[in-house]
């Protein structure tokens, strides 16, 4: 599900890397997976980044650390988001490794290095080259690239390659992550040129999302029941990019409509603050409805009662707060960041609620809570799950199988020589493959990690 990386090697030896993502929420396997690229970074000639999410960009600094010195092409918004995400990730790597090395020192184990350091992330950011949507650009004498809007997060792109070899032209499309049609903030995914080969994500290939409007109503219901009725705290683990802005936009509209209860709401994530600022900088990615709202509301991600928490001290003070409130904090899978502390401090009180609003790897803390765990381990301590655990599935930046089918509707299935389903759980992929066969796609492959295949 995470750790997105795809390597295209031309017959003449040119190596093109699509994404360089970090594995997340994979339990004890996570570190080993992140250490093993499956290829030599020094041999990569050019890299293309579909979007800024860490599971697609998070190992770019390690790629640079291990010898990649070429350009990394992306959209302008992806460039801005990736900068803040990679710098934040580097700080997390360094902080986490300090804890590990303290423990290793006590147990007589050797010192270990972080995946990368802040200096590696800064060098990688300098390699980012922004290119706008809708413009074919050349990365090699034989290869042209086009970005089309994927509608997933600000700046997300589907990547289309036109490769000319031996007088023959092949078109390869990489979906990145496909967004939703009718997203409350972003434009819908764009149509794209006919492809010979498609590398396609399949996260929700067996699911249909509920309507987005009821999800907004569900969010308000949880705020009312937890904060107004039970006088408790509503803890919302939310990804800093995409999900946090979507929640803030929904609450902004509720406030304008007079539906938002009078309750203090905190965004406890410096990264979320930076990501929201970057989102504001790129209104070209907003849909018409948001553009219209901006004519009467200059900040669609803010409203009375909202406060951003910046310092660690302010974050800790929320644990001593007795009054009801809403706390939105990263990360979305509750695997890292300040939200783990908030969950630890509130999970054993019945009046509180932990509200999961996006996809969680099954082994992550968020995933275990979603599955109904009655006891969880956080930072090595055991906690009884006495707080209510809620789930809103409609708040997803990933398209469901109907969205993904609509994305493919611009393609003639008979002209697609092979379609590869990636970035999904195998059971889901098999269901989606059957669905696509009914749509007329004939050759559908579900590759394993480090799978290699010759095309053409």
TrEMBL record:
**Which Gene3D superfamilies would you find in this protein's record?**
3.40.50.10890, Ribonuclease Z/Hydroxyacylglutathione hydrolase-like
Q: Which UniProt keywords apply?
A: Hydrolase
Metallo-beta-lactamase domain: from which residue to which, for each copy?
A: 2-224
- Molecular-function GO terms, alphabetical: hydrolase activity
Entry's EC annotation: 3.-.-.-
Keyword Hydrolase listed? The answer is: yes
User: Mind telling me which residue stretches traverse the membrane in this protein?
Assistant: none
Start and end of every Beta-Casp domain? 244-369
Pfam families annotated for this entry?
A: Beta-Casp, Lactamase_B, RMMBL
PANTHER family found in the cross-reference section: CLEAVAGE AND POLYADENYLATION SPECIFICITY FACTOR FAMILY MEMBER (PTHR11203), INTEGRATOR COMPLEX SUBUNIT 11 (PTHR11203:SF37)
* Stated name of the protein: MBL fold metallo-hydrolase
